[in-house]
Amino acid sequence: MSEKCSRRQRISIPEFYRHKSVFITGVTGFLGKVLLEKLLRSCPEIKRCYVLIRPKKGQSPQERIAGVLNSKLYDKLRSSLPDLKERVVPVCGDILEPRLGMSEEDEQMVIENANIVFHSAATVKFDEELKLSVQMNVLGVRRIVELAKKIRNLEALVHISTAYANCDKDSVKEVVYDPPLHPSKIIDAMEWMDKDAIQVLTSKLIGSRPNTYTYTKAMAEFLLKEESAGLPTAILRPSIVGAAWEEPLPGWVDNLNGPTGLLAAIGKGLLFIMHGNIYCTADMIPVDTATNAIIAVAWYTAIERPKDVLVYNCTSGQINRLTWGAMESSLRENFIVNPCHDMARVPNPRFTPSMFWRDTMWFLDQMVPAYIMDFYLWVTGKKPIFVKIQDRLSKAVTTLEFFTSNEWHFHNDNIFMLLGKMSEADKHTFCFDPRSIDWKKYMINYCLGVKQFVLKEDIAELPRARIALQRLQRIQSLLKVVAAVLIWRLLVKRVPVLHSLWNLLLSWVQFLFMKVPRLARSS
Fold first, then answer.
1. CA distance linking residue 410 with residue 170, whole number of Å
2. For 282-385, where are the alpha helices, taking DSSP H only?
3. What residue stretches are annotated with the Thioester reductase (TE) domain (predicted)?
4. Which of 5, 4, 42, 9 is nearest to 422 (CA)?
5. Are residues 356 and 376 in contact, defined by beta-carbon separation less than 8 angstroms?
6. Burial class (CB in 10 A: 0-12, 13-18, 19+), 521
């Protein structure tokens, strides 16, 4: 038996996935898209990828997955894998529905053919209503486990959680923590409680956690551990998932969730002040780093069959530290060197630990200019937009400030153990070691990625954007001088002490201009 285990350990990751089929949820999400692309590109002999997709906005699952496969992210893969569309099989379903909303035929297809299950689907809205968050993040996990128990040749079930599921603790180990309330009780409560009652109880239920997302993710982990007994199961907890570091496109990102939305707002000159501590860790993990870890975790879980559910903290803070202060400086520098088009103002992001200062500067440095710019738009016959943008931005920023103002110690023992089990070739192909990340280079690519992939701006137009930025800098400097003069004149007239000081200053200036030249001539 030991000889067999030793032989299986020598199987590389691509070899392990050869002729295997996987079942993936959340494939239309940011992480899911990269996971599917990486599996197909680096494990080219994988048999099938069954992807659970629900119809949305009049689009069928087939149309939605076609949109994913035809995106820029899959450009390389389309040329190297001619049968790409045959390898990816869309399965109509929804994690909110019993049996995942699959037809009997589709369910049987997955049961008969799938070997590995990746559960990535979840609501990532921090301020989601508790009922929907429970239904998607907790009850959805139960339905995945129910399906996994039916799969005939299941080798691994990997659940993607979040490192912040236990953000009520300063030190987070790679274990599943007991929740304050059993998941079954909260699931049952959501069935009979009305919307108003749930809203009233939400803050009491989540306790010291900042939102329903982290609360339900912690619930989901416990439920998974409890109900997946006997199944080869693992949990991966990425921290703040950011743009791609290297693969398949450096800086690739396709949504405004999390830090990407902040970067876009900063780049456009709309966000200047946030509550945060510049000395705290910005625990960022690139999406391709997280994806590589997910694929390796499934490999190890299938090969080793650990007795317990292993948890992997896929984080960077204790391994290759980036601070919010370093990010602040990097964003300011990068958006000046590579500016966005049509900026409202010159980018100048700042973090402050003071909520009073944050609120004061938000009003003076963001809301007042927004009203002025909206007044200008109104006068010129255009639709005012800036105040509405600031209102939406305020809500988005508020949900993130808990994470920019605190830091956690994430243990990474299992991550390093997994790295130690991999061959050098696999470590290169499926690299998830945060020590390989050059944060300076990463932030340059991230900012360019936001500009190119999210804001849909042409990189070739950068010279024109730089000219526009220089013009904006001159206008902004002139306005600051005018404002300073006006404020000073107003204060001089209204405050007697300042009026006296001003007269004293003028008299000294007059003295210097009149007396000094005379002394020079006489000497």
1. 9
2. 287-304, 324-337, 355-362, 368-379
3. 24-294
4. 9
5. no
6. exposed
State which H helix or E strand residue 102 sits in: none
What's the CA gap between 177 and 164, in Å, rounded?
Answer: 12
Residue 177: helix, strand or coil by DSSP? coil
- Given this model, what pLDDT does residue 506 score? 63
Distance of CA 458 to the CA centre of its chain: 23
Contact yes or no for 367/271 (Cβ under 8 A): no
For the chain, the farthest-separated pair of C-alpha atoms sits apart, in whole angstroms, at 108
Residues making up the chain, counted from first to last: 523
How far apart, in whole angstroms, are the C-alpha atoms of residue 122 and residue 94? 11
Cα 6 vs. chain centroid, distance in angstroms?
Answer: 38
Question: How many CB atoms are located within 10 Å of the residue 478 CB?
Answer: 10
Spatial neighbors of 520 by CB under 8 A, at least 6 apart, are: none
Q: What is the model's pLDDT at position 482?
A: 78
Q: Coil, strand or helix: which one is 149? A: helix
H or E, element range at 248: none
> At 229, is the secondary structure helix, strand, or coil?
coil
Q: Rounded CA gap, 40 and 37, in Å?
A: 5
Dihedral sign computed on CA atoms, order 473, 479, 484, 487: negative
CA distance 68 to 123: 19
326, 189 Cβ separation under 8 angstroms: no
3-state SS string over 182-247? CHHHHHHHHHHCCHHHHHHHHHHHHCCCCCHHHHHHHHHHHHHHHHCCCCCEEEEEECEEECCCCC
Q: How far apart are CA 131 and CA 136, in angstroms?
A: 9
Q: Please list, in sequence order, all residues whose beta carbon lies within 8 angstroms of the beta carbon of residue 103, skipping any fewer than 6 positions away.
A: 92
Burial (CB < 10 A; 0-12, 13-18, 19+), residue 172, is buried
CA distance 467 to 317: 38
- Residue 136 DSSP symbol: I
CA distances (Å), origin 462, targets 339, 342, 458? 7, 12, 8
| Token pair listed for 42 | 């680096």
What's the Cα-to-Cα distance from 14 to each of 274, 295, 411, 425, 500, rounded to whole Å? 44, 10, 28, 10, 81
Residue type, position 311, single letter: V
Q: Which residues of 244-282 are buried (b: 16+ CB within 10 A; e: fewer)?
A: bbbbbbbbbbbebebbbbbbbbbbbbbbbbbbbbbebbb
Give the residue among 203, 204, 206 at the shortest CA–CA distance from 215.
Answer: 206
Residues of the chain with pLDDT under 50: 1-9
